[in-house]
Design brief:
Length: 261
């Protein structure tokens, strides 16, 4: 495994073969994909820390979905990646959808976990308030946010049976920089839907039966707009899909890639 910085973005690369590019969500990092790495055997895995998240510093321009999209496209071109399987979680799924529409030549397939087209209007103000907490209260604010996410975004099963998963979710959020997290929240609050009817690549949508962000009904409605999209709903799973149900997520990815070949 090699960690490098490309276009001021930290990436981890490992393996050889057809490229798969992993995009985390809000409060995430390249480690969102560590639990499902066996699904990518025989491939070159490129795991990105988005600008302003985890190890990647904030860019000069304010964060936005378009900033993420164009940064990823630029990074892939510098790495001479011309066509990749894209895997994404949560906010990263919005980024992936826009990438597939704006730069279709870069995208071979989409596997989206906890997916959403855009935040519902009712959630946008909450994201802006969360940005204010992170910015105004710093590390203490991030701890408050992390505790709320653990409580509200994981399943009953995870909270009762998987304390290590709860610690991992909490640590992922707490390790963000306050300003980076605040701007990431604002980027998500301002996210607009991509024209997903234009997506023509094989698409897998995986969510949990207790995912309050990628709600199963909304994910099924999303799939109806993408030709040939497949939906999988994991039982006893909240929003942090790859952390809560790593074996099941890995199995679904393996099946998806076998079908897509």
């Amino acid at each position: 495994m090699a960690t490098t910085q490309v276009q001021r973005v930290f990436i981890e690369t490992e393996g050889e073969g057809a490229p798969v590019v992993c995009i985390h969500g809000l409060g995430g990092s390249s480690n969102n994909w560590t639990p499902v790495l066996p699904a990518f055997e025989g491939r070159k895995v490129i795991r990105i820390d988005l600008p302003g998240s985890a190890r990647s510093p904030l860019p000069e321009q304010k964060l936005s979905i378009d900033c993420y999209v164009e940064t990823i496209a630029s990074v892939l071109r510098e790495l001479q990646v011309t066509n990749a399987d894209i895997v994404a979680h949560s906010m990263g799924t919005i980024v992936a959808q826009h990438l597939a529409v704006k730069h279709p030549e870069l995208v071979r397939s989409l596997a989206l976990f906890g997916p959403l087209v855009a935040p519902p209007d009712a959630a946008r103000e909450g994201m802006r308030q969360r940005a204010g907490i992170a910015r105004d209260e710093g590390v203490a604010g991030l701890q408050e946010i992390a505790d709320a996410i653990v409580k509200g975004a994981t399943s009953d099963e995870t909270r009762s049976q998987r304390p290590v998963t709860l610690a991992l979710v909490r640590e992922s959020v707490m390790r963000q920089s306050p300003e980076g997290y605040a701007q990431s929240c604002e980027a998500l609050a301002g996210a607009q839907a991509a024209e997903i009817e234009r997506i023509e690549v094989p698409t897998l949508l995986v969510t949990g039966d207790q995912d309050g962000v990628g709600k199963p009904d909304a994910v099924n409605a999303m799939a109806a707009r993408i030709a040939g999209a497949k939906v999988v709903v994991l039982s006893g799973c909240g929003h942090w899909t790859t952390f809560e149900k790593p074996a099941e997520a890995t199995a679904e990815l393996k099946r998806f890639y076998q079908r897509a070949q």
